[in-house]
Amino acid sequence: MSVQNLNAVDPFAEEEILATNDVGSQSEYIHIRIQQRNGRKTLTTLQGLPKQYDPKKLLKAFKKEFACNGTLVDDEKMGQVIQLQGDQRVKISTFLTDNGIEKATIKVHGF
Amino acid sequence: MSEEPLFDPSLKKRKKKAVAFTEDPLGADADPTAPAPETIDNTTTTGETVDLGPTTAHEQMKSNGEEGEDDDFKAMFGDLKKKKKKKEIPMDLANSGTSTPKDAVSAPAITEDLDFSDIKKKKKKSKKAALDMEAFEKELSESKSKSAGDDDEDVEVEHNPNLDIDDADLENDPFAQPDAPPVGVDMGNEPWLTSDRDYAYPELLTRFYALLHAANPALLSSSSQKRYTIAPPSIHREGNKRSVFANVTDICKKMHRQPEHVIQFLFSEMGTTGSVDGAGRLVIKGRFQQKQVENVLRRYIVEYVACKTCKSMDTLLTKENRIFFMSCESCGSRRSVNAIKSGFQAQVGKRSKNRPA
């Protein structure tokens, strides 16, 4: 009689990995959102940047490319979020796709 | 500011789009009419000029097919708008002007959509006309007056004004009726019967579709007639920085969704907050225009209402173990849908207000 715990593959561990994978696939999206400020001013946030990209450098490139200011915000839940002034959603998504990020992973929100 | 009070981040886009918009209808106009004159004379016996679109239902279907599913969603408000044209600004216009940037992919689709109604209008007309035309050619060649031909013409005249006024989107099944008689006429006198030449492929194709649609009109109505339409959201401004979405309950009812779910989605997508007032209206913080809310609603429908398998809107959303499942009433498919998650919310407004006292 075999002992479950001594099996080469631990069924529970696998499940855990599966579960994390599932969650990962959902949160792998890069979310680009817009928020209204006062007047006709807006704020664009970019959330969920893959780990291999350096948010600092990306922010710098964004600021230069879009001629806007921006900042890096540390959020407890969402991690590091890039915040830019103005509605930069299209520009961001084209910039990212031009630089080799798949369009399918980018989700643009807002109106 | 008060002159142009509505908040519109895509204002810049509008100029660019406006150009495309003026171009497009031309293209659309030219498109359906172009093929027609080659084969068909576009004058009647009485010498009146008739506007002829593409000749057959299959052409109509072809052009319909080009516009994707996405278009259907786009169009669903558009159609409605068309009908209300007299009172309201046509949404088609609003659409093309303002399709928000992230719809870059679908932006062309929108403009297409806007032609679409035009095209459709023409097509409807032309289908009758086409059949009429064949009878007609024959008539000319044999110089034998056919009562059927006259009949057709009557039908056409009868329908034209109707089509012009209306969007032809109403539940008109007018062409089931005019379709039938011409086909009967065509049966005996296809153009190739009178001449020595062989029949050409397009002719046969036309004949096939004419017969097919005559035999089962249901095909036609399902391909172009049945459209999912919702009343466009009515957005008013309340004060300076709040918008009121008045018919949210109606729309939710139409979509068979809980208002809470829809509202949650709206808020998380638009990155704002709000509340439902006593009259069941939704008060949204921030300035939003109708087309903006409409865009968000469209995305909601794509995501949470339309069945991915059969594209039917006849679906139910149920919650089981904290997961939402959408089951389709027409095809029976069932799938889970993403929970609505609101993402990162940036700090806007005064920090002192947010600080716990």
Automatic annotation (TrEMBL), chain A:
PROSITE patterns: SUI1
Domain SUI1: from-to ranges: 30-100
Keywords: Initiation factor, Protein biosynthesis
Gene3D superfamilies according to UniProt: SUI1-like domain
CDD domains assigned to the protein according to its UniProt record, in alphabetical order: eIF1_SUI1
InterPro entries noted in UniProt: SUI1, SUI1_dom_sf, SUI1_euk
Family, per entry: Belongs to the SUI1 family.
PANTHER family for the chain: EUKARYOTIC TRANSLATION INITIATION FACTOR SUI1
Protein name (record): Eukaryotic translation initiation factor 1
Organism encoding this protein: Rhodocollybia butyracea
From TrEMBL, chain B:
Boundaries of every Translation initiation factor IF2/IF5 domain copy: 225-334
Gene3D superfamilies per UniProt: 3.30.30.170
A GO CC annotation given for this chain: eukaryotic translation initiation factor 2 complex
Coiled-coil segments: none
Signal peptide extent: none
Biased composition (Low complexity): 24-56
Pfam families: eIF-5_eIF-2B (PF01873)
MF-aspect GO terms: mRNA binding; translation initiation factor activity; translation initiation factor binding
Ranges annotated as biased composition (Basic and acidic residues): 138-149
GO terms (BP aspect): formation of translation preinitiation complex
Keyword presence, Protein biosynthesis: yes
Family matches, as InterPro entries: IF2/IF5, Transl_init_fac_IF2/IF5_dom, Transl_init_fac_IF2/IF5_N, Transl_init_fac_IF2/IF5_Zn-bd
Record region (Disordered): 1-122, 138-158
Family of this protein: Belongs to the eIF-2-beta/eIF-5 family.
Protein name: Domain found in IF2B/IF5-domain-containing protein
